Write the structure tokens for this entry.
Amino acid sequence: MKSTRRTHRHAPLIALTTCAALTLAACGVGGGPDDPGGGEAADPSAPIRAAWWGEDNQNQALDEAISAFTEAGGPAVSVEPQPWDGYWDKLATQVAGRDIPDVVMQAASQLPTYAGRDALLDLSEVDLDLSGLDEGIRDFGSIGDQTFGVVAATNATGFVTNADLLGELGIAAPEGEWTWDDLVAFANEVRTGSGGEAWGVQDGSGDMILFILYVRDSGREFYNDDGTINATADDLRNWFQLWADMRESGAIPPAEATAEASGNLPGSPLATGRAAASFAWTQDYVALQSVTDSALDIGLPPYNAENPSLWINAASLWSISAWSQNPQGSADLIDHLVNDPEAIETLGVSLGIPPTAAAREQLVDVVSDQERPAVEYMDLVAANSRPLNRLWPDGFADSRTLFGQLAESVAFGQMTIDEAVDAFFADAEG
Amino acid sequence: MTAPAALRTADPQGARAARARPAKRPTKRSTPLRTIAWHGLMVLICVVSIYPLLWMARSSVVPENEIFSSPSVIPSGIDLSNYPAGWVANPPGFGQFMLNSFVICVGAVLGNLIACTLAAYAFARLRFPLKGLWFTVMLGTMMLPGHVTLIPQYALFSAIDWVGTYLPLIVPKFLATDAFFIFLLVQFMRGIPRELDEAAEIDGAGRWRTFRSVMLPLTVPALATTAVFTFIWTYEDFLGPLIYLSDLNAYPVPLGLRMFVNAMGNSSYGQLFAMSLLSLLPVFVTFLLFQRKLIQGIATTGLKG
Amino acid sequence: MRSSPTLKADQTAPEATAAGRSAARVRPGGGAPSGGAARDRAGRPRRSPRQRGEARAGYLFLLPWFIGLVGLVLGPMLVSAYLSFTEYDLFNDPVWVGLDNYRTMFTDDPRYLQSLRVTFTYVLAAVPLRLAVALGLALLMNRAVRGMSFYRAVLYLPSLLGGSVAIAVLWRQLFGGEGAVNQILALVGIDGPSWISSPDTSLLTIIVLAVWQFGSPMVIFLAGLRQIPQEVLEAATVDGAGAVRRFFSVVLPLLTPLVFFNVIMQTIVAFQAFTPSFIISNGTGGPVDSTLFYTLYLYIKGFGEFEMGYASAMAWVLVAIIAVFTAVNFLGARRWVFYGDES
């Protein structure tokens, strides 16, 4: 089934397990697999493995693009498409077994963890031309002068509104420059305008990405360049208070309704017409539109032209395993997927919105009507954004999870805002 | 250990004592009214059990944006397009996934039937040194959560180059690693009166023959239970195939189903529900068939007390 | 395992003393002394050729299991035991930290204690309820009626759905703020909460789910009921026992080995419950950790936060907890479990 199994370099765990098993079998001492030590010369035509998560369209498109790559003289590639569910469990297991595929799809939130613990190859060690990528997105996979990922698709946070509902209520969605206080006013207006039938906006207090926007809105960065947190306790206190006030006034859903909708896009208040707006990623916008009859719009979150808070984000990135036996062949594959016009044509927007201007230009006519507003929105973002000062630090994913938990505790009244703020910073420092 | 006092009513003395008293007519088993009431109750319970499936069936035939809007089981209209669409999505497609599942399941069922039965017979009927220790060890292997052995196990299978094949999913069953079924079979076998196999032994039958021609036929219901559970649990196992399989062509049903749910953009819920429903069909049929076996097993072996 | 050595052969292993039947045939090993046995100088029972033959047969029948145990099961178990004394992030080699993980668990991890609370509540509520429902329905269905196998298969359906994604969606449809349950309650004028997402009731919905998936213990009970010899029941009927009395004095005692099995297994399974909370809470154990099951937290630690050493330590504490419960069950079993292979 698999043609590309190889010997494993430096796999303490395998040795340990095998030893345990062998010892138990009384088969003697010092078992364990050969340890070639990694001195082999890389063969650029050696077969490689490529893994990603994705659904049908994406799998088929990638299959086709990768076949073309092999046909054009590249190494043979065994493809490992996986469901999103369990993707990270499997990758973690493979890391422990020193057995991860050569080319791996990564997420912006996980990349720092894998890069920071030496599981990914520094791409400056291979020959890979990234000049075509948009500025700002090119450096997304970088830490210092090392690069660990090439953005495969971009996305950004947006403010999604239910145009039908707002039309009925005669309320305009915020446009142009607007502030977080305007958000409160907007939400309350929806609340009163609908006679309490609709919430203004979904509760976003637990979304750290939004808090980062909130901090950046004032011209500061959320993280210092060294990866410590630059935001202050006051920032966080004000943030939680902003949402607590809206919860109090009924402008956002109560904690139960928010919890019920978490991880359940089709059941979210926006999708079911009980909220007029929500913050969402571009891909979620497309998904939301497909599960509701109402017309949805997407626009910039609170915005000031002096300090644009938004950044173009990586929806997914391509990385190379630090243990790859064919790093150059893997790099060639990534190059093919990102830069080759034919591959761009094949992939379309199946992965998301491409990271190069050339690709977006090439694709402008082929996107579906459902996807078009998202693509157009990305152009708006491109013109009104400010790149992050650095890639997320290792531990970002954990911070983000903790942030959500604390916000939920506040919403349910199990923690005061001050306690939550203290807990967050205690964790960040400890 | 003595039998509970209450049980003695069932033994011959009890029966004899009963005969001394004026004979009572056995209570009537079923009157039409009781039968109807019984069926009514069953139908009610069935409705509660089956509601989610009805909801899934309805969700597989309505437009995507209607699925989550109501808990009703009555579709607003019927559009079957999710079935063919879901069937061919993710080539090689759902037919192949079901076939793959079937191959894995047959292997697992055979493995468990053979290996667990052998081990159970030893624990239930044979005397050998350290039996108590081994039995405790066997129970102990069930107590450790699988998540922490996943990685060492992966390392092990990876070291012998089994990753990417069905071997890590099937071979362990032939080595009786499913202690659940050993324990289950032990409990069943212990319920069988010892006189039966002792009689065979006195006749000169060896251990193996006693096991094969006395014990096995008497354990048919338990074997059927083992087969059904192994089939079903293997059929719906997600984590094992996820970790050990990487080639889409080799994916079984649970992996195939999750491919409909995507984190980045559209999830095809309609197709997901359509295929979920379809994938339950073989299991349901298996269950229905083995149910009969379960009953027949008893009827034909005619257990004597 | 090492924590459950009290399970001696005479309770667990299914060896009846069968004293009256074969005084000469002494059970070797297992610990419990047997009267009248010939013993060698070291005090061990001397084995006759016949016994040796039986011992050989025992080990032969166990051979596949031994191979699996040594080759596949023990190795990973020992590795995880070793890892529980280390800090191990999957990426780097494990670093020995002694008992730190175990200490942290009980002194410096409120979420761990919460996961214990959630799990114990779940075990104590779900196991008895599920078994009662399973036994009740098995009795209800233990009769020869046309369509029986169909009913039985239908009743097994909820268990077939297992951990499918559909369950998560469905449970929200049923127990959400505007779910079916509240719609029914509204008919009688009660304004129910969002059962699934209120921290006070979210665990309850998962217990309901566990009870609703009563299929596997039911099937086991049913198979057990089918194994009860008809003659015994008839004798009791002749004896004048009514249905209730027949159940308590005949059926239930004969069913005890399987009741016992189900209690043991369902307890073990419930302590390790993972999937229901994982799919319903979307992997978070929320809201506010109200459904943070033990193994879910273990999984979050091991695979989410890459603290596999800590997760392994948690796993071994769970083994100890389960072992205690199992041992207590086995000790108690002496009083109420009746085996057909005993006189």
